[in-house]
Amino acid sequence: MPRLLMSRVPVAAALALAAATWTALPAHAQVPCMNEVNAARAPVETTGKAVKAAIDAKKGPDEICSRLKTFTAAEAKFIKYLEDNASWCGFPPDALTQVKQSHAHSLKLRGQACKVAAAPRALPTGPGLADALGTNRPVAAPGGSKPSGIFGTLSGNSLQQ
91 and 47 share a domain? Predict the structure, then answer.
């Protein structure tokens, strides 16, 4: 799952490319555009950090799947905003392509995580530790006596043997 974090690199590169383009715009067009894009991007960043936190905390696949669903939905809204306002904002087509590729990768990762989350969880069927070590579970001591105190062992008191 740590590979999920690598999927954010194209988004950062696309936004850096877009920022370089926006600096070439006149000052009166740059301010509203940047404010709008930052407002549209904020949910993507917030949900992306939530996904990263879930992965870092080694949350279960159900939790990661849920957070990835939220993240990909926020990404889709951001892409729609960029497409709708590309001409007004001067967003470069190459950057939009990179954001879409990153979103496709996020969707793929979401599918993998949700597939793992939906899979039934089975107990291991192979040999247990006792089988691997060649031991068996201890048999209860004759007479039903239970080990007690500091000298008690699995088969009774070691001083009495």
Answer: yes
- pLDDT tens column, 32-67: 678 888 898 999 999 999 999 999 999 999 999 999
State pTM to two decimals: 0.58
Q: Could you write out the DSSP letters of every residue in 10-54?
A: HHHHHHHHHHHHHTTS-HHHHHHHHHHHHHHHHHHHHHHHHHHHH
Residues 135 and 110 placed together within one structural domain of the fold? no
CA distances from 122 to 53, 118, 119, 150 (A): 27, 12, 9, 38
97 & 140 share domain: no
Q: How many domains does the chain have?
A: 2
- Provide the token pair at 52: 């990263």
| Of 75, 89, 81, residue with least CA distance to 11 | 75
Alpha carbons 76 and 44: distance in angstroms, whole number = 9
Tokens of 157: 């008191």
Handedness of CA 14, 32, 46, 112 (dihedral sign): negative
- Domain with 139 in it: 124-161
Quick: pLDDT tens for 3-31.
443 344 343 333 333 443 333 334 444 54
Q: Tell me: do 92 and 140 sit in the same domain.
A: no
